[in-house]
Design a protein that fits this description.
Helix content: 55-70%
Largest sheet: none
Order of helices and strands: HHHHHHH
Strand content: under 5%
Oligomer: single chain
Distance between the termini: 30 Å
Number of strands: 0
Shape: elongated
Length: 188
């Protein structure tokens, strides 16, 4: 993988502020949302595989008091869309190696979003993929839904976190084209 800097795009308007002076704060809020969602999937897997709960009982942490969160295709689709929009909007602030990793996360989320869109359409129309009794995504034909979505969220989160770490520790070429204050100032 080349280490030369990929220049930041020159976004305009709100995107400029989001990817310059507000980039660090926006990344913090976005990371909190993403990691909290990922933790919900991990909690659900622990409930099933460690605590021995049945899948209908295992609803993560927020799903216990609010069961509709787990069963609402609109909520799942809305989160997938929010994540996709966040990855797109915050992308312009990244340079070099961090941009490459952010793009990996974005590419995976494009597919994850498509799968949730497919699930939402099935839930709305009642026509399920291959005549299945419930809305079913393409990869869900091979992997159970709980495990698949934990896997998807892991696949999106890991390169996103790598991108954020690299963004905070740019090399000289990357630092030269950064337009935000995410990286600590160099000691002089």
């Amino acid at each position: 993988m080349a280490t030369e800097a990929v220049p930041a795009l020159n976004p305009s308007g709100r995107d400029r502020a989001l990817n310059t002076r507000h980039h660090r704060a926006a990344l913090g809020v976005f990371a909190l949302i993403v990691v909290a969602h990922w933790a919900e999937h991990i909690a659900q897997a622990i409930q099933v595989y460690v605590l021995g709960w049945s899948l209908p009982e295992a609803r993560g942490v927020l799903g216990l008091p609010f069961p509709w969160l787990v069963t609402s295709e609109w909520m799942h689709y809305g989160y997938a869309l929010l994540m996709l929009i966040g990855l797109i909007m915050l992308r312009h602030g990244f340079t070099g190696r961090a941009r490459v990793w952010w793009n990996v996360s974005l590419g995976i989320q494009v597919w994850h979003h498509f799968e949730h869109f497919l699930l939402l359409v099935q839930a709305m129309t009642g026509d399920h993929l291959l005549g299945r009794p419930v809305p079913t995504s393409i990869i869900q034909l091979l992997v159970p839904r709980m495990e698949l979505h934990l896997f998807y969220n892991t696949l999106v989160t890991i390169p996103m976190v790598v991108a954020m770490i690299l963004h905070r520790r740019p090399n000289e070429a990357e630092r030269a084209v950064m337009r935000c204050s995410c990286a600590p100032a160099l000691a002089r």
